[in-house]
Amino acid sequence: KRPREYGIRFGVLPTGSLNAITDVPGVRVGQITLKQGQNIRTGVTAILPHEKNQFQQKSLAAIYIGNGFGKLAGYSQVEELGTLETPIVLTNTLSVPTAADALIDYTLTQPGNEQVRSVNSVVGETNDGFLNDIRGRHVTKQHVLDALRQAKTGPVEEGNVGAGTGTVCFGFKGGIGTSSRKLPASLNGYTVGVLVQTNFGGTLQITGVPVGVALGKYSFKENLDGSCMMVVLTDAPLDARNLKRLAKRAFMGLARTGGIASNGSGDYVIAVSTAYQIPHETNSAFDEVKLLRNDNVSALFMAAIEATEEAIVNSLFAAQTLTGDQGHKVEQLPVDKVVDLLKKAGQAK
Amino acid sequence: KRPREYGIRFGVLPTGSLNAITDVPGVRVGQITLKQGQNIRTGVTAILPHEKNQFQQKSLAAIYIGNGFGKLAGYSQVEELGTLETPIVLTNTLSVPTAADALIDYTLTQPGNEQVRSVNSVVGETNDGFLNDIRGRHVTKQHVLDALRQAKTGPVEEGNVGAGTGTVCFGFKGGIGTSSRKLPASLNGYTVGVLVQTNFGGTLQITGVPVGVALGKYSFKENLDGSCMMVVLTDAPLDARNLKRLAKRAFMGLARTGGIASNGSGDYVIAVSTAYQIPHETNSAFDEVKLLRNDNVSALFMAAIEATEEAIVNSLFAAQTLTGDQGHKVEQLPVDKVVDLLKKAGQAK
Amino acid sequence: KRPREYGIRFGVLPTGSLNAITDVPGVRVGQITLKQGQNIRTGVTAILPHEKNQFQQKSLAAIYIGNGFGKLAGYSQVEELGTLETPIVLTNTLSVPTAADALIDYTLTQPGNEQVRSVNSVVGETNDGFLNDIRGRHVTKQHVLDALRQAKTGPVEEGNVGAGTGTVCFGFKGGIGTSSRKLPASLNGYTVGVLVQTNFGGTLQITGVPVGVALGKYSFKENLDGSCMMVVLTDAPLDARNLKRLAKRAFMGLARTGGIASNGSGDYVIAVSTAYQIPHETNSAFDEVKLLRNDNVSALFMAAIEATEEAIVNSLFAAQTLTGDQGHKVEQLPVDKVVDLLKKAGQAK
Amino acid sequence: KRPREYGIRFGVLPTGSLNAITDVPGVRVGQITLKQGQNIRTGVTAILPHEKNQFQQKSLAAIYIGNGFGKLAGYSQVEELGTLETPIVLTNTLSVPTAADALIDYTLTQPGNEQVRSVNSVVGETNDGFLNDIRGRHVTKQHVLDALRQAKTGPVEEGNVGAGTGTVCFGFKGGIGTSSRKLPASLNGYTVGVLVQTNFGGTLQITGVPVGVALGKYSFKENLDGSCMMVVLTDAPLDARNLKRLAKRAFMGLARTGGIASNGSGDYVIAVSTAYQIPHETNSAFDEVKLLRNDNVSALFMAAIEATEEAIVNSLFAAQTLTGDQGHKVEQLPVDKVVDLLKKAGQAK
């Protein structure tokens, strides 16, 4: 059960119908989970902004770096040009090159891309090396291509799945989580969807309730560390500048869960708008865009904060106890106890 | 009474003895409050890292911009050189030039600075134009010089004082707040002190308890907006790079109170280390420094987050209902109700 | 005579008709020169992108920081919002607060701005403290307002004028310089205009000819240092992201003159597009813009490089020997010798 | 013959004894050239700052992005932590993932790295897709490992070699170039070495002489575009902040050759100091460093500018006419004509 089913509410804005990144029309997610033998606990999660050829029809995009101890591929070109030309792939730290290479394969072989000689693969990662034999680099290009091919709209699986298969969050089993917000018409009606790969530390609080302290699990009591990848999609017409501002708010959502972005954390947010597709080639010298004005973006900011907070907690509720490499075992969040704590605080029913 | 006196606890790290920015040895704060007639509700808050000539003995420093809709003076030189060469002054938006000019006066007239021809004044601000006749620009250079002169160690006044005299936070009266954390010896024993000028919006939560919603006051229900200036001092030996990372964590502390860094918000953090004084001139070609390693900064990060969260709430507990320009009135936080809400949630005694 | 009149050519693109920043339609420049007594050698240069109320009709803008040892006011808001809401004022280092305050006066008192409570003054500077009694801060708010009021289209005075009255460049008298490029219709026909306040060091080369070495005047032979303010205007429809890229190319133009952006240099570029005026308030939630595509900006980049190189050299050709504070004297560039050197190198006629 | 052998002088500072990046003590370069059949024209260039285990003994480092249309791997972690933990590898655009993966192999298999689970590979690239069948991705991990293994001190091969095998610069055959500057003792005596992979456009000027125009080859006359990777090594004790400033000056050196950093250009500078080795693990909580003061870095800045300008021209003098993929042919710089032009301008003997 997801937190909302326990009556837990994050913030004040309404969710989309699936409470998932796929509430943004056209967005698809594909996941490959690698759980093999005693020591392989990893995977791939792919997010596709639209159904067309992403290289030929680029999306407006930005990347915000919360804490840059990470290996994300593709930052500088997105920053310079303000566009995304591949799907987004998440995986483990040491498989970033494999995934980036797979995105090149994917792009070069798509119909219409026969002349393409330059591809800016965007790949995020966190380090699942506690539960997963990360040094073995078990993710293959085929796994990545499979994740891309299987991507679909609709509900998104959460927890020990895809790139979240082997991750650890606040000392509990982490994983993939997702959430969304749908603004009311008075605030322009746009949707903000978030997907996270949770693998970080701090002092867990759920809707502010200090769960981490209550359960005796928090940074500097235990050695908690790690990273969080956040992907934000929206149908609001924002350019790269405002998408970067939106991305930064996802990082604020992470802060609301008690994350501290420790030295060793790779906290990145990739934000993409589906409002426009910028053609790779065109006869026009211009891009014509109708962009939301600066003074209309604040509600989207709040949406990104709330959806990120909820997506992180969703990942914890969905994840299950897992044993992996070297016999390491990570317990899942004790949901019943947590719900009790939240009930006492008036935050669950 | 400050929140701690109601048994409210922010995070897990211990405070310094004053629970104030002045817990960092040598740090002084001076404040001038302008409350005159019907419409003047503003002031000046000055923070001095050490007792020597700040221009001749520069401090390692960094500025992090959470949301740049603001007029802070002095950013680029701090960013380029990694040092602070004037005290920090906070005031209202339209008085930044006056304060910057006063810092030039202050610097040029100090003994030893007779040949100085370049001064990088660092001035932060928020907009108190709802309660204060900000267009009147009632702050004078003398007010700023007075704040600098009166600066002292020891307890720091909070609430409607200094640069916080006329500010509004989460729809309630805001102001100046301060807090600190003293790390245990096992985490190297350093102190992190924070002072904030609170003037922003969002959905107020206090130790996670959704106070704003409970009281019916939050962004997009009402029109809440605005800015937050945060100043972080520490005796930990950090260079500009790690001070900027530390500054960013203060912004995460703001997020924990429910702040959303709306479009119109000017959210800036100035972080300064008192560990070294970098001479303006010296015979040596080198600066010799012993800096905390990257992998030892995370506890400081957590300290900055917690102290910022607490400083913001401290400002709300201390601020008092105020009427000002055009008869505008802003109510103080209903502390009794709030404490009741926190008690119910198990967060106050 | 300007360099072009000696047959000197900078780059390959054609200039606008005035070879000045005012070739960009609607752009006006106003300058106040303060040359009084033995020691006052300073002034003000104002650049206005258009004739309307700049606060109500903001311009798309960006600021690039080449080397941030400087006191430019207004950076962070331009960076965050991508717009300019005051004219640009240049003056000396210690008069930035005065100029910023004057821009607030200017803005608050303009018809239509009666409710304005927040103004992001943009003021650039270089340090004329060798020839000018900079510590005396002789620039007044009235001087700034006068420069704004006198601003006009048409030719722009160069050399010892306005904010360039007391500056020094490559060891010779520097000052204000300007130049422009008008792209051919095949490259979309836009104009790029540049105005510089030259006050920096390095090894002067003019169209590549190593004039500084030939004349025995260059950094580390003599103690040359200092800053350069560059303002780039264009009618090309670029948003803040591409304006920042354009601004960076002006810095490349500085490099072509032999500038080295020494530690003490404050090298800033303010780039503004006149293509759109973004209303401060409007009923629409959107800004509709037709922007030049990324793959069409390179010719503008080259234009900015060439025009900046030429504007810097123009400032040197126009500036005249000046004696000032403490009897300091700075010789003008020996134009005849320089032209001879360029003739020998085949770069002048 | 290198340009210096024709009496051509770039700037005013003396070179190191090899006039190569390897003048910085301990720095090694390894190159693998792939010239096979009709269409494979690519390769690998590796730069190793020191002889020890780079992961265990990290180097202070920074990356400056001149224009970010590129796929460089490793940016964000270097930016966040200020250190380099792998050698630097340069190759072609679509082989970045292969090279990044090879650096992981290299690191994981080094003695002492048995527990390493996170590696920040730093890989730069330019696009050799005109002469090379880049879509074929002919660089293998073994090629990269071979380049690393063969790395040595001493002279560095220039021209059509390593990662410069298939590149094109200013419309002529580009490639690898290198140069250095050795500061006199009065300026602290440090060495700055630069290595470039040249593949970009603009209007070529050599020591300022407008060679590109004279030869009728320049941007917008022809379609010239592309990128430049620059690597700067120094034994000066600079931290990441000052290394980033140093890196920016290499970009100014590129500007001096007539480069324009066009939209499609990926212009990156990786700067590394060999002065300190920061241990991956240590018992101390501190790094003790003696860093060159800000006011002593300007001569290093000038050194980086001059050495980069010279390294780029060196690459052009060394490169030879090459035919490659699809029968594309790129002529080498007509050195005799160029030297004649420089002689006439008084810039060669």
Gap between N and C termini of chain A:
14 Å
- Count of distinct strands of chain A: 15
Instruction: Work out the count of structural domains of chain A.
Output: 1
Number of helices of chain A: 7
Q: Give me the oligomer status.
A: homotetramer
Kindly provide the name of the CATH class of chain A.
Alpha Beta
Sequence of strands across the biggest β-sheet of chain A? 4-3-12-11-10-9
Order of helical and strand elements of chain A: EEEHEEHEHEEEEHEHEEHEEH
Name the CATH superfamily classification of chain A. Answer: L-amino peptidase D-ALA esterase/amidase
Radius of gyration of chain A: 19 Å
Percent range of helical residues of chain A = 10-25%
Low-confidence stretches of chain A: none
CATH fold naming of chain A = L-amino peptidase D-ALA esterase/amidase
Strand proportion of chain A: 25-35%
Mean pLDDT of chain A: 97
Biggest interface and which pair forms it? A-B, 47 and 47 residues
Shape summary of chain A: globular
Q: Could you describe the largest sheet of chain A, including whether it forms a barrel?
A: 6 strands, mixed
